[in-house]
Amino acid sequence: MKSWKKQKKGYSLIELLIVISIIGVAATLSWSGLSTVRQQSVVDNACDSVAVMANKARSYALAGIHGGDVNNADSIRLECSLNTCTIMSSANAGSTWTPFEQDSYVLQNMSFDAPFSIIYTIPYATAPSGDTPHIITLTDSSPAITKTLITSNFKASCQ
């Protein structure tokens, strides 16, 4: 008598559940890694934007661009509060500061470790020499994601 073996077709429910569980764990791990990378890129972009503003303020001072309503500006200032940076100009040795209308940047969900300002004199664009670090922190992430803005007499850059 011939014995017929029944051939197994398809997968059992347990096999499918195991594969789905493995895929779920892998997706969860990769999603958490991607969100950290995305948050880091947001902080990098914000730091780069503020560095560009600092370099732009220095360029304004070198070019003698006054901005605002000030006709005889003698200095350009980058003023950064905890979460906003604005380029301003001043006449009369900084007695009154006038913001440049188009030159302001708001850090969304981020802040500096402390407010700061950089003043460049016209026409030489000199400012306090030496590297000064300013820490930008993403406020709604855990663990905290930070980037350091380094400002000096000649340039601003992020590290």
TL;DR of this structure?
This protein is of the alpha+beta class and 159 residues long.
Question: Would you kindly provide a written description of the structure presented here, covering whatever features stand out?
Answer:
The protein is of the alpha+beta class and 159 residues long. The protein has one domain (14-158): minor pseudopilin epsh fold. The chain contains one helix and eight strands; from the N terminus they run αββββββββ. The chain starts with 12 loop residues before the first helix and ends with a strand. The mean pLDDT is 81.
Record the SSE blueprint.
Elements: H1 13-63, E1 75-80, E2 84-91, E3 96-106, E4 110-112, E5 116-121, E6 132-138, E7 145-151, E8 156-158
Antiparallel strand pairs: 1-2, 1-5, 2-3, 4-6, 6-7, 7-8
